Amino acid sequence: MDATDTPDVALAQSGDESAFQRLVERHSVGVFQLAFRLTGNESDAEDVVQDTFLKVYRELKRFESRSSFKTWLHRVTVNCSYDLLRKRPRVRLEPIVTDDGEAGWRAEPEADAASRPDRVAYGSEVHRRIEAAMQRLSPAERTAFVLRHFEGHSLEEIGEALGLRLGATKHSVFRAVQKMRRALAPVARTAEWGS
Amino acid sequence: MRHPTDEQFVLYHYGELDEAEGAAFRSHIRECEGCQRQLATLGRELAAVRPVSIPERPADYGARVWARLQPRLADQRARESKPARRWWPFGAVALRPLAYAAGLAVLVVAAFVAGRYWAPAPAPEQVASGTPASSTPSTEPGSEPELAGAPPGAQGSTAAAAVAGVRERILVLEVGEHLERSRAALLEVMNAPDEDGAIDLSADQERVRDLVAENRLYRLSAIDAGENGMAAVLDDLERALVEIANGPSRVSETEFEHVRGEIDAQGLIFKVGILGETLRQRQAKGSSI
User: Fold this and answer.
1) Residue B65 in 3-state DSSP?
2) In the predicted structure, residue B16 carries a pLDDT above the cut 60
3) How far is B25 from B243, CA to CA, in rounded Å?
4) What would the 3-class secondary structure string for B94-129 be?
5) For the packed helices B33-48 and A166-188, what is the interaxial angle rounded to 10 degrees?
6) Model pTM?
């Protein structure tokens, strides 16, 4: 276990709230960053941060220090993000006023959401397409892809975290890559990747 | 070896082929120019998929997270220390009408206490002017003179206020109806009949799953609209709905006590009733203006 966390984990397990506070303050940014990568949305990532630490608080007494606290926290973050992705509707509703003055809701298509200027922090066409493609992945595909491609986890670890068999995990990563490549195909012909 | 499959290309790229497959793949690639090109293309494409830029967090982010978390931990401790108790001690069959009566009572009480708990959101004009209706325009140095006096040229902000007003009315109307449906569903769950020591929730779960999706949309909209009180109740409601939706469809009486206890401990039906009543009042006020 990380030497810095060890005493605080032990104190927190015995009910010392200030020790738990130190753990929260030390790891909040890391949890947020992982949650943001997995959910792709700032407000969802903030929800995941809260859910993660609440879950850790509930389960802390059962934590047996076989792995580091950080590794365990990472795994809880993945679980909470995956849960949230599964609950998250695929479209958001926008309140609107129609031409004849009636009030109503309009479903905002995912592709539109991705290309809205205020949602796009990284301007290039390639990145817009990547973000749109990420939003269209299923929760399992997205989580598996982020953990494999960005976080460098093995398929075995990913399967364990998501409760998937190895074959299903492989297939989730593969499907995510295929969807990503399809989304990038139009720009791939005119651009030199990575240059 | 035949040409590798697309999946094998992807797994090879990530170093995830097992030893034998990996050796066969490498040996094929050495001989096959087409597959070499295919592998190189895959590598270039995946190299372009770089991590998104992550929004910066402030230096005191950990402290902020803790400030938001602490009340929830206190809640958690309170729940843990509270012994599980029966929602109703007299048997499930006799209690269905009682629960509905309790629901009605909630609404009556809510009519009196609503507004004490949730202050209505500022009227659109207030939002636009940035000042409470009763206060005089600010003369503080640095205050916006344009906002204080609503001068000519403020038509843009008037239009924005009108749109904000419409958004608020839609939110109030839609959330009010959603709360009504959710309250009814929770009451149904609380009163689900006990059959031979087990409770079948399958019918309720289907309905609750729809409510979870709706609830999430409304909660996000409430957050966007700055309706923090509304968002907090919807947050509590969502947790309970998710627990019911994702739980087993047939549970023992003991397991079911836990669900009831959770709903009961949070006073959730009461809170949902009060918020619903508050929204109805806001809606009535809005339509009378």
Assistant:
1) helix
2) yes
3) 47
4) HHHHHHHHHHHHHHHHHHHHCCCCCCCCCCHHHHHH
5) 90
6) 0.52
